[in-house]
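hey m, so remember when u said the tokens were messed up on ur end? i reran from scratch. heres the input so u can diff it against urs
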Amino acid sequence: MSADLFVIRPKWTVQAPNLRCTLKRALAAQPEQNVWSGTEHINNARAMAYGRDLPDSGPWYLGRSQLCTLKIAIEWRRAKRAASQQKTAPDILEHWTEIEDEVIAAYRDSCHAEGLHWI
């Protein structure tokens, strides 16, 4: 396995569909809300949302760019979720935030591997 790939292991079956849904919603909102600032992220989002990069079971092998794309989409979705009047069941939200936090941590680790550090 390449050193520039990071492994994420989803623990719940709702996690991959949730992230694919997040990517699809962000792609749909892209023209009005500019979720991502570049075509690289849009292409990554399409590939992950409609491809095989985020399978329901088994590990995900993602590059730094893919992790960044997911991180941006997750932050966008969290902001939308916080602003919404609808509330998600706590047990489901727990599984979603668990994988979201894992993706963000993997992105932070990928940045640290490149010598970029968050404060």
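this time it looks ok to me. The two ends are 30 Å apart (CA to CA). if urs says something different then somethings off w ur setup not the seq
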